Amino acid sequence: MDKDAFEKGLKTRREVLGSEYVDNSIQNAGEFNMPMQELVTQYAWNEIWNRPGLDRRSRSMINLAMLTALNRPHELKLHLKGAINNGLTKDEIREILMQTAIYCGVPAAIDSFRCAKEVFAEMGI
């Protein structure tokens, strides 16, 4: 593991997903899944999220669409919070999810709208 890349990724991961969630993920990682936490933090959150070329808002938009397509509600909820943290509005998120209905299927989009409604309620927005 590249300690510097991990620390940079950890900083970005905390800024997008929130320190509480990220710190819990790291603290609750055992011997079995800590290598996965290290991989995701170093590569996804440093090597990809910290690349120039796309801002965090754009990366969040892409993630919402991809996670809808992949039907990953747990990750979608995390990235909905991250999208809000990255400056997306409810209206923008609605438009992203509307577009997924056409390209990913209506059932996938309906599930994502359900997830978004839960996240918005949790966040008080």
Automatic annotation (TrEMBL):
Domain of life: Bacteria
Every Carboxymuconolactone decarboxylase-like domain range: 36-118
InterPro entries: 4CMD/NDH-1_regulator, AhpD-like, CMD-like
Record GO terms (molecular function): peroxiredoxin activity
A Pfam family assignment: CMD
Protein name: 4-carboxymuconolactone decarboxylase
